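Chapter summary example.
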Amino acid sequence: MGNFGKIESKFKAQELRKQGLSYREILQAIHVSKSTISLWCKDIQLTKKQQLRLLNKKQFGQKKGSLAAAENKRNDRIERTKNIRILAKKDVGEIIKRDKFMAGIALYAAEGTKADGKVAFANSDPKLIKFMMNWFLTFAKIPIEKIRGAIWLHEGLSESKSKKFWAKLTGIPKNQFHKTYIAKIKNESLKIRKNIHQYGIFSIRFSNSAIHRKIMGWIYAIFNDKITNVL
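The structure predicted for these 231 residues follows.
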């Protein structure tokens, strides 16, 4: 760049700065270093309105940068989780019928009803409900017409949508559902509920003393009678 071109660029830079443009914006019009722009424009005083504009622009840029960084971090976490699940699936290997049998026993030991004669498993996770529904049909050999469904639902959520969802998932007809329990919202309570399940908590239920005692026997066999005997 010759002397004349350099002087022309300097005047243009100063004029743009007087208009309230940032150094970054000036660099888009004049191809010199940022330090040169800073030297040329260091004595130019901006109005309060211009200063406020640049401050807002800087804060917006910082916020945009933070959002971009957060999105990149989120994508990295999703990718790491995906890879971990792939490796975990390899650790598990092929799942055979006995594996499912043992998994169902463990799930019932944790979440199932222990009272004699009453079989019930409740959860909000559709995957677990579907698994246990198939488990009862396969290993407890209970006919589906003997099984009942029950829903625990927060006030304000759709009971009809909930019934339709769980009936389709489990195969239990809606006419075999017990009356839905609606949990009232306590306005005076200071507790904020973060996990309000859209379709509520579902319970698979049936009454059969022989099957319940067999399930409890399976549990005792695995856990070496460490679970309190309630019979």
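To summarize the output: The chain has eight helices and four strands.
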